[in-house]
Each structure stands twice: as C-alpha cells, then as structure tokens.
Write a structure and sequence with these properties.
It comes from Cervus elaphus hippelaphus (European red deer). InterPro entries: Leu-rich_rpt, LRR_dom_sf. This protein has about 400 residues and is α/β, with parallel strands linked by helices. It has a domain at about 175-400: Ribonuclease Inhibitor (Leucine-rich repeat, LRR (right-handed beta-alpha superhelix), Alpha-Beta Horseshoe). It has helices at about 10-15, 25-35, 45-55, 70-80, 145-150, 290, 315-320, 335-340, 380-405; strands at about 40, 80-85, 105, 115-120, 125, 135-140, 160-165, 175, 185, 205-210, 230, 250-255, 275, 300, 330-335, 370-375. A twelve-stranded mixed beta sheet has the order 1-2-4-6-9-10-11-12-13-14-15-16. Strands 3-5 form a two-stranded parallel sheet. Strands 7-8 form a two-stranded parallel ribbon. Helix 7 links the parallel strand 14 and strand 15 (about 330-335). Helix 2 (about 25-35) packs parallel to helix 4 and helix 7 (about 315-320) crosses helix 9 (about 380-405). Residues about 1-20 and about 335-370 have low confidence and may be disordered.
Length: about 400
C-alpha cells in the first residue's frame, strides 16, 4: 500500500463510507456531532491511515491545502467523548488486507468517556491508556485473549509492577497508573481464560461483564471493592468455593451457562438481589437451600438445570425461601432478548440491557442478558408453598420425637 493509498479520505472512499472522516468534512460537521454528543464510528483501516500519516512527522497541512489538513481531525479527536471502533473479519474488499489485524493508535483521543472496540486485535492497539483520566465505560469484544492486553498492555515490558497508590511489597520495576474514572467494563465474547491481577488497575469498577469467555476460576475479584454487578455467564466455572470473600457487596450475579452443580459458596452473599443460575448442572433441590436464607435476594433463575424437570419445581424453589417466598420471583421461561429485556441497550448497541441516565452513565442489568422472563409469585403458588412448609415442619417434629424416644 503506497503513501497515496494511506490518506484517510482515500481509504474512506474505498470503503464506501460517508466522507465525514475527511479533514475538511470533520471541520464542517465536527462541531455539530460533538454538540449532539453522538457516538462516532470509525474502522481500524481509517485509524491505521491516520496513525501512519502522523508517524511520518510531517506538518499536519504538508500539502498546503486546508481541506486536507489533519489538524482538523486532531482537533476533533481531542474533544470527542464517545467512540466506536469496529473491524471486519476476513480480507478487506478484494484486497489481502486483514483489517482486524491492523495496528492503530488511540492516543489522539484525549477526552473519551466511553469507547467500544470490536473485532480488532487488542495487542495491536496503542494509546488506549491515554484515556485513563476520563474513560468511564469501556467495551472490548471479539478482540482480546487476556485482560492484561486491554488494561495493562505495558506489563510485558516489566518483570514486576504494582498499581499506583498500592502499598509496595518487595521490589517492583514499575508503578502503573490506575483507570481512575472507569466504572463499567465489558470484556465479553473474547478468549479470556483467567481473571488476572490487572483488575488491580480498575478499583472503581461497578459493572463487569466477562460473559462468553473461558474463565475457570473467580480469581482477584476481591480487589474490586465497588463491584455490584457481575456477568460471568457462559464460562467454564465449576466451583463457587469462597466466592463470598471476593464478591462481598455484589447485588447482581449472572452465572448462567457454566458447569455448576453445587451452590454452597453463595450462602454468604448477603447483598445479592438478582441471581441467574440458568443452564448449569444443578440436580438437587437441597442446593437451593444455600441461597434460601439470603436476606436481599428477590430474583432467581434456575431454568435449564436438571432440577427444573421436577414437577412444580418453581414452587419448590420458592419454598426454600421460607417466610420470604412472597418477596421472591423465579424465572418462568426464556424469551428472545427483545422480549426479555425491557430496558434500553448499552450505548454502543452491544446487546446488553442497561439503565442509563444519559451517555455518561451505564448500569447493565446483567440478569436480563439471558432473556429470562420473571413472574410474580401467585396466590396459588404461595398456598402451595405454605403446604410444603407445613409438611416439612411436620417431618422435622416427627424426627425430633423419634430421636427423643430413642434416647
């Protein structure tokens, strides 16, 4: 690809995109876009072209033509708040260019509040860390093989590192600034196998989506003191041992689509309100008892588990909550996402349910991600629950009498 082919305008024209990305068009329309607070969409190919031009070290208006002055683009990117970068799989057009593998630099974006990146190679993205002071919401999907690639790309340069502000234990070769403004992180649909120590760099995270990865164990989440909503659905979790020591303040937990048979690790999550355990391997109703005493739990989903084939299983699940049965709702059926998620989507259209008060705030309703439909407990179900409780109490009394007679 020659220099002439690397100009942003030429590449935009080749792709058939709107010429708004040319310097002059940005100068004309940029103020309107910034004022409206719209998400600006761009491809890796265009970012690669701009990166190449800037690396040449020439004046931004080397041609002398104001209409091709890259300064217009730099002024625009310095003020942009909402960015979406989407690559494409396979070769670009009829060429042999693999767009998703192109390197590009995001350091020209100085004021980002939200960014979504998809179908790129996280290892080839430079400059994202320049947004640490301002970035509140980040989504990187179909792009990463580890959390480190996204959160601390410079880690490969150092033997030992610690986050800024941490008490140093032993020798370190680097102190790395944290993502001090980041409160929502979506790393779903990647090839991440572990929750590594890079989470130490996101201490203010409240919403974390790691769904559709290959995570085996819940490690390092104890460093995230502000975490309240977690989506670990469709991973490879088989144990919840000690989870209460890592998710002490959690309110919404999506564990659908894992390999769980035992729920004993959930019994001390006293702040938990929403819990999705659909599509696991839970067989015994006794397992539900470990969550039946959770004081704040209001919504629980156990669809597509072996125990869900038990006759009247929903009523029997509610019975595990004792006096709180009337306060708990249980998932009744899977619905398409469009029916099961009444809230608006993530700002970038990534398919997540959110409660948002504007572009600058994000609250994923992670429980709705599986499209579960929750029914309020009916009077008939409550009556049945009371009968089941009475039967259980009678069994307990009979057992006590039997034991006392033996003595």
């Amino acid at each position: 690809m020659g220099d002439a082919d690397c100009t942003p305008g030429t590449l935009a024209a080749q792709r058939g995109w709107d010429p708004v990305l040319t310097p002059w068009a940005v100068a004309v329309a940029g103020e309107q876009l910034l004022g409206a607070g719209e998400v600006f969409a761009i491809g890796p190919l265009q970012l690669y072209a701009v990166t190449e031009q800037l690396q040449q070290g020439k004046p931004t208006c080397a041609s002398g033509d104001a209409k091709t002055d890259l300064g217009h683009i730099l002024d625009f990117t310095c003020r942009l708040k909402y960015l979406k970068v989407s690559g494409t799989e396979g070769p670009f057009g009829t060429s042999n260019i693999q767009e998703q593998l192109l390197p590009f630099d995001l350091s020209i974006f100085k004021s980002l509040h939200q960014v979504e990146i998809s179908h790129c190679d996280a290892r080839r993205i430079r400059g994202l860390v320049a947004s640490k002071p301002t970035l509140a919401t980040m989504s990187v999907r179909f792009s990463a093989t580890s959390m480190k690639e996204v959160l601390v790309p410079e880690a490969s340069e150092f033997d030992e590192w610690e986050p800024a502000g941490a008490a140093l234990e032993g020798p370190v070769t680097a102190v790395i600034p944290t993502w001090q403004a980041l409160t929502a992180l979506d790393l779903s649909h990647n090839s991440i196998s572990e929750i590594d120590e890079s989470v130490k760099l996101i201490p203010k995270i409240e919403f974390l989506d790691l769904s559709h990865n290959g995570v085996l164990v819940m490690n390092n989440l104890q460093h995230l003191y502000n975490l309240v909503h977690v989506d670990l659905s469709y991973n490879k979790l088989s144990s919840l041992e000690g989870v209460h020591t890592k998710l002490g303040n959690i309110k919404t937990l999506n564990l659908a689509g894992n390999l769980l048979r035992n729920l004993s690790g959930l019994h001390k999550l006293y702040s938990l309100v929403n819990l999705d355990l659909s599509d696991n391997r839970i067989e015994q109703m006794e397992e539900v008892r470990s969550i039946g005493s959770l004081p704040c739990l209001e919504h629980v989903a156990l669809l597509n588990n072996p125990l869900s084939i038990i006759p009247d299983y929903r009523t029997k699940v509610l019975a595990q909550f004792g006096e709180r049965a009337s306060e708990v709702t249980s998932a009744h059926v899977h619905l398409p996402a469009s029916e099961g998620c009444p809230a608006p989507e993530w700002p970038f259209g990534s398919g997540k349910c959110t409660a948002s008060t504007g572009k600058g705030s994000l609250a994923p309703l992670l429980l709705g991600a599986t499209g579960c439909h929750f029914l309020m407990t009916t009077e008939k179900e409550l009556d049945t629950v009371e009968v089941l409780k009475a039967i259980q109490k009678a069994k307990e009394v009979k057992s006590k009498l039997s034991n006392s007679e033996k003595k």
